[in-house]
Specification:
Blueprint (H helix, E strand, L loop, with lengths): L28 E2 L1 E3 L2 E3 L5 E5 L6 E6 L3 H19 L4 H17 L1 H12 L3 H22 L13 E2 L2 E5 L5 H14 L3 E5 L6 H12 L7 E3 L4 H9 L5 E5 L2 H11 L5 E5 L5 E4 L5 H13 L11 E5 L3 H12 L20 H16 L3 E4 L14 E4 L6 H4 L6 E7 L2 H9 L6 E5 L3 H10 L4 E4 L18 E2 L4 H6 L2 E2 L4
Parallel strand pairs: 1-5, 7-8, 7-10, 8-9, 10-11, 12-13, 12-17, 13-16, 15-16, 17-18
Antiparallel strand pairs: 2-3, 4-5, 6-20, 11-19, 14-15
The protein binds NADP nicotinamide-adenine-dinucleotide phosphate and magnesium ion.
Magnesium ion binds next to strand 4.
Length: 488
């Protein structure tokens, strides 16, 4: 067995490699994007900050019910007069144009996302923005092929889609929602999260640049009440939400008994399962990617490591050694692996649940590192000695905190993995194909990754079982969620 010290001795130091922020032009204040223009709201405004420095970035309008009503009216007009009448091949041209502009302005989008959200530039640059462009390209390709979507000869859009998204992948969640909605002929009113509105507002500028007809996309910024106003608006035909299970349940109650269609993408507590025949170094990379990617602010994060008992010591030793090489700090530094926690509120929640882990008797190990004095930071952390009854094994921490459990047999692994109210994702690490397929058949999770983790592709449907929500985004099911058969 490899013996490693708690903190690996660095072989060399990295020189700072900050990406320049001069490419972004953050305005002192932003209005709402309604009917193709930026307008002042009727309500108040709020500040968005950089979570790595606590610097105020901009003042953003907070849409009230009257603002949401204007946005829905603009979306309805654009739907009736322009967008639903336009041939799919014409809609496709706009979506292709948007996709290309996203690529052209990719560095600007990535830098702005990292500043407003706190995620490392290498993730926003290499994962978020390329996947955003890929979603627009993919659904642009569907816009003139809707009669092949499996819904009959002439499937119809729902009308106006109200969309509410979280802060962990601000631009990517926007793309998951806006691209299929527009391809199918719907118009949208979208609310980004309160802590990360800036890339959605830059996307609004991209819609202007692409000459998208006014009212097809409307962006209304605000907090929970703005989201609630969108969901409850009587002229919204389809609601799409990504966020917490708690708010998802409230939304399900709001739309119950109405004609509104709804898809909910909610929380998760995924098991990442490592068998004794897995290639250990690859599995360790997969564990790190599973829980420390995006500071663990990932609904499908592999937040429960289930490791086969006979290799648990070796896997944990190597995991600790690998974790000690993770670089935490300035999100704009190209060498940074772990950025800032998105908000003070989220940091508080991560700290509280970790303290519950201590109190329940689990053993905490964290990377020894100096945390910046400003901003919101939490070191990569693992808890061992975790039992299924512990809250840190059951509740979503939504931060860089891994709970480690062990198992002896595949049956026990399945029992433990499925012992959760969630069912969004899972990972299996094994050299044996038949075991991987058996596990995939028995795991109650919408996505099962084999010998990899956190891989996203626009062609692949994504969504949950149980309290992780219903409906799928991505691929053909993600398009069908924005369509109804001609007879419906
Ligand atoms: P959240 O509190 O549910 O917020 C999500 C969005 O809903 C935000 O835009 C939020 O606005 C808004 N909102 C809050 N209350 C609302 C209400 N009553 N009616 C309508 N909208 C409302 O979730 P979060 O804490 O920001 O995000 C973390 C959660 O999202 C985690 O549980 C995570 O698992 C889940 N998530 C799931 C997926 C998935 O695909 N399944 C993806 C990402 C995240 P404000 O931000 O302004 O409060
Ligand atoms: Mg922010």
């Amino acid at each position: 067995m490899v013996k490693v010290p708690d903190t690996a001795t660095p072989f060399f130091e990295y020189a700072p490699a900050p990406e320049s922020r001069s490419i972004v032009d953050i305005k002192p204040s932003y209005g709402l994007f309604v009917d193709g223009e930026f307008v002042d709201g009727h309500g108040r405004s709020f500040k968005t900050i950089s979570p790595s420095t606590e610097e105020v970035l901009a003042e953003v309008a907070e849409a009230d019910e009257a603002d949401v009503d204007l946005a829905v009216k603009a979306a309805r007009r654009a739907y009736t007069r322009v967008w639903s009448r336009m041939p799919g091949s014409e809609r496709a041209k706009y979506l292709f144009r948007i996709a290309r502009i996203i690529q052209e302005r990719g560095r600007e989008l990535a830098v702005l996302e990292s500043i407003d959200n706190g995620k490392p530039i290498k993730e926003s640059r290499d994962v978020d923005v390329p996947t955003v462009a890929a979603h627009f390209f993919y659904y642009a390709g569907w816009a003139d092929k809707l009669d092949h979507a499996g819904l009959g000869a002439d499937p119809r859009p729902h009308g106006v889609a109200g969309q509410v998204i979280p802060w962990n992948f601000p631009l990517l969640m926007l793309a998951w929602k806006v691209a299929p909605a527009l391809a199918a002929g719907n118009t949208v009113v979208l609310k980004p999260a309160e802590t990360t509105p800036l890339t959605a507002l830059l996307f609004a500028e991209i819609c202007q640049q692409a000459d998208l007809p006014p009212g097809v996309v409307n962006i209304v910024t605000g907090a929970g009440a703005t989201g609630q106003a969108i969901v409850a608006h009587p002229d919204v035909d389809k609601v799409a939400f990504t966020g917490s299970t708690e708010v998802g349940k409230a939304i399900a109650r709001t739309v119950a008994g109405t004609r509104k269609k709804v898809t909910l993408e909610l929380g998760g507590k995924a098991a990442n399962i490592v068998f004794d025949d897995a290639p250990v170094d690859q599995a360790v990379e997969g564990i790190v990617n599973g829980i420390f990617f995006n500071q663990g602010h990932v609904c499908c994060a592999g937040s429960r490591l289930l490791v086969q008992e006979n290799v648990a010591d070796e896997v944990l030793e190597r995991l600790k050694r690998r974790m000690s090489t993770l670089r935490m700090g300035d999100p704009l530094d190209k060498n940074t692996d772990i950025g800032a926690i998105n908000s003070g509120e989220q940091l508080k929640r991560i700290r509280e649940l970790s303290e519950v882990g201590d109190a329940e008797g689990a053993e905490r190990w964290e990377v020894a590192c100096d945390l910046p004095t400003k901003g919101f930071w939490f070191p990569p952390t693992i808890f061992t000695g975790v039992s299924q009854a512990h809250r840190i094994a059951r509740e979503e921490i939504f931060g860089p905190v891994l709970s480690v459990l062990t198992f002896r047999t595949p049956h026990e692994a399945v029992e433990k993995a499925n012992n959760t109210p969630y069912g969004l994702s899972a990972g299996v690490w094994s050299d044996k194909g038949s075991r991987i397929l058996w596990m995939a058949n028995h795991l109650r999770a919408g996505v099962v990754w084999a010998n990899t983790f956190n891989k996203f592709d626009p062609t692949s449907p994504f969504g949950g079982y149980k309290e992780s929500g219903y409906g799928r985004e991505g691929g053909l099911p993600g398009l069908a969620a924005y369509l109804k058969g001609a007879d419906a």
